[in-house]
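[Amino acid chain]
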Amino acid sequence: MSLVNGLPAHILLVHLVVVLVPLTALALVVCAIRPRAAQRLGVVLPLLALVTLVSVPLTTGAGEWLEGHVESNALVRRHAELGDGLLPWAGGLFVLAAAVWWVTGRAAASGSGAFVGARWSAAPVRVAAVVLSLVVAAGAVVDVYRIGDSGAKAAWQDGFSRTASGGGDDD
């Protein structure tokens, strides 16, 4: 994918990643901490994580195309380098979302909310799921921030004047 309506696809697809990664991270953490939330969301949690996972290589692929069509400099190379590191975080979000969904689904299928309340809340598996979810969610969100910041710097370096040109509306 290269252009959409004459615009580089990357600058459009990046908005999916910027919204979906933090949204998936938040949903994962809430569902890991509160199994009832995971039961309410059901299959939506892993589906959201899957869409997030798929959006990352689409965006980086479009970014690689764009990288070949702009002047290369250290900022562009740094942005591309950082962008390549997001896929493992998105994969982690997906794996954990699927695991939380599967465990809470099995708990609900056992026919007892007590299983969710008693065994799931006391289980070392839940503690591990919560800790891993927090770590992966934080890592993914921080990585998206770092990638976005580097992309903005690459795109806007020397691209604007710090003083008004006088040609626009002064209000």
About this structure: Helices lie at 9-33, 35-41, 44-67, 74-83, 86-109, 113-122, 124-156.
